[in-house]
Amino acid sequence: MATEGGGKEMNEIKTQFTTREGPYKLLPHSEYSRPNRVPFNSQGSNPVRVSFVNLNDQSGNGDRLCFNVGRELYFYIYKGVRKGLLSSQNQASSPGGTVV
């Protein structure tokens, strides 16, 4: 959306927009997470595109992981990689001992 100077607001997260693939809109969590969802097309599996986005917000929680599945866009707050609670025996065989 435009600011008073006529420029675009860079920190705004849009809730709906249109691309060459079609329209996108923000759905409530209860609607996009229901298990009986019907896919947009049944021509086979859609490609999944993954993006990592940083919004540079002041709270330090600006990292987002975005998944584009067909015409649907999902984004999640990324909180980083956390060290798992592994025993010393499992840490030797684990690649770095990290859990994502």
Automatic annotation (TrEMBL):
Keyword Transport (UniProt): no
Annotated TM spans: none
Annotated Gene3D superfamilies: YVTN repeat-like/Quinoprotein amine dehydrogenase
UniProt keyword Signal present: no
InterPro entries in the record: WD40/YVTN_repeat-like_dom_sf, WD_repeat_creC_regulators
Keywords: Repeat, WD repeat
Region (Disordered): 1-43
Comp. bias intervals (Basic and acidic residues): 1-12
Record-given protein name: WD repeat-containing protein 20 isoform X6
Higher taxonomy: Eukaryota, Metazoa, Chordata, Craniata, Vertebrata
Gene field: WDR20
